[in-house]
């Protein structure tokens, strides 16, 4: 069970390539919420996640995570977040298990084994990620969600490259995370009927 | 992610990408070997020129090595993860540079006696040369990574790194070659070593913070 967490974004403006994005976006989410960020291509969905996690700085606005103003210094939020961007962040030269030990060094061997089995990667445990398919590599990246004990998940197009089974597994994982007090923000263009999501729409 | 798991992954990646390190070493050896063949193989030319030849080759090999330091991480997204993992980015960069320095400079020191023999260096001069490499080369890496981080998102950034960083390498080359020349003349050279050490320590303190700023600018 995660401790109570909340994320409040107020009057957020983002500038990318001399374009204003989000334009005064405000929303508030809390433990148990699964939030889908909607918008056309280029509306600023990925930029919004990057701003929240601290890769980008906002032009204007405030970000408060669990009562702490993290607009300037995101370290408090970064201690409690898993961010998965367009690039998986997985090192192709390392094997599946080496990548997981890199990101989740505290995970027990049995936990690693269990996650890899549920993600159907157990037969590829010692295979370098560069030899896996794009979908399998994506599963390796997503396995951090099962193993990392962080409250806030920021997922940028997490369903990309996944097959039907992979989508089902990830949806179940997100449901489980929300049910124990986790907080999920994700960008996707696909409908998620099995997840009860709140939507935040970005206007172009 | 912890600092320990990061260092372990760095060494594993270096081991799996040993071709990159070997390329830098091979480049170093080729440059050193070509000098006697191309100009003059007599001891009258090679002995006084040895320190300059070795240090110029070292600078080129280091530039090759640092140019690729962040490229792969940038491509696979792990550089982004380092920025948001909640650990100190300057400290992660410091650890990364130390790992790269060990991977490049240690093998270089191992083959140095062979190259010293080829360049007619006396054992005292060879010792001085190896000490200058040990003491001076960290500054090459620490200054080089700033340029590498600034140009990581640029496709053909290698030339830009050279233009940006090479002027800062000149004092290191000058003090190193002077130290070896002093050793060859039987003069004390600890003052030159102190200067090299000072440059390495200064770059060790400043570079991780400057590189972290450059990395953050590059990933966004």
Describe the structure.
The complex is a heterodimer of chains A (204) and B (220). Chain A is α/β, with parallel strands linked by helices and 204 residues long. Helix content of chain A is 30%, strand content 26%. Chain A has helices at residues 45-53, 75-78, 96-103, 109-118, 134-147, 164-179; strands spanning 6-16, 19-30, 34-38, 60-65, 68-69, 81-84, 152-156, 183-187, 198-201. Chain A has a five-stranded parallel β-sheet, with helices on both faces. A four-stranded antiparallel β-sheet of chain A has the order 2-1-4-5, covered by helices on one side. In chain A, strand 1 (6-16) and strand 2 (19-30) form a beta hairpin. In chain A, helix 3 packs parallel to helix 5 and helix 4 packs across helix 5 (134-147). Chain A is globular. The mean pLDDT of chain A is 85. With 220 residues, chain B is mainly alpha-helical. Chain B has one domain. Helix content of chain B is 85%, strand content 0%. Chain B contains nine helices and no strands. Chain B has helices at residues 3-16, 18-38, 43-67, 71-76, 78-84, 89-118, 123-150, 158-184, 190-219. In chain B, helix 6 (89-118) crosses helix 9 (190-219) and helix 7 runs parallel beside helix 9. Chain B is elongated and about 55 Å long. The two termini of chain B are 22 Å apart. Chain A binds chain B through residues 50, 53-57, 74-75, 78-79, 81, 83, 85-94, 98-99, 101-103, 105-106, 128, and chain B through 1-2, 4-6, 8-9, 12-13, 16-17, 72, 75-78, 80-81, 83-86, 216, 219-220.
